Amino acid sequence: MYTDIKQARPCTISESIIESCKEMKSMREGKTPKRSLNELFANIEKWSKEEEK
Length: 53
Known about the structure:
mainly alpha
């Protein structure tokens, strides 16, 4: 089926989860600003528009 499609990952899934946990800890400690779900959706929309260019 899709055996010819190869995608390069910038990191492994476990590395991504570890980084996400570090980011959450940093937010809870007040070292980085908290982000809302609305901000996430806005960023996703912005990134998708940037990729179209």
